[in-house]
Amino acid sequence: MIKTFTQDDVIRYVYEETSPEENLLIEDAMMSEPELMTFFLEALELRALMNKIERQPRQSTVQTILNYSQHHPENPPRRLRHS
């Protein structure tokens, strides 16, 4: 039986979520299917670009959290339950 690989399989390969046996089969498929190889190269480039993205919260968000933490007790008192 011949296994057909999809773009999802290539993405799993890019993120190293495939077994060594799958790796060999996917590599063979990419060598014989130019469209799959093109997708692989684009996925690698996209992964590299995404790894460069740095996200930081707005200063106002950080200040809100700091203000909240300064005005609230670390361990609020617990309510006693009456039976």
Major sheet, described briefly? Answer: none
Number of helices: 4
Large-scale geometry = elongated
Rounded Rg: 25 Å
Q: What string, H for helix and E for strand, traces the elements in order?
A: HHHH
The structure class reads mainly alpha
The pLDDT mean sits at 90
What percentage of residues falls in helices of 4 or more residues?
Answer: 55-70%
Q: What proportion strand?
A: under 5%
Distance between the termini: 69 Å
Q: Which segments are poorly predicted (pLDDT under 50) over 5 or more consecutive residues?
A: none
Characterize the structure shown:
61% of the residues lie in helices and 0% in strands. With 83 residues, it is mainly alpha-helical. The radius of gyration is 25 Å and the shape is elongated.
Helices and strands in order:
Layout: H1 7-14, H2 20-32, H3 34-51, H4 59-70
Helix pairs in contact: 1-3, 2-3
Can you summarize this structure?
The chain is an all-alpha fold.
Give descriptors for this structure.
83 residues; mainly alpha; 4 helices
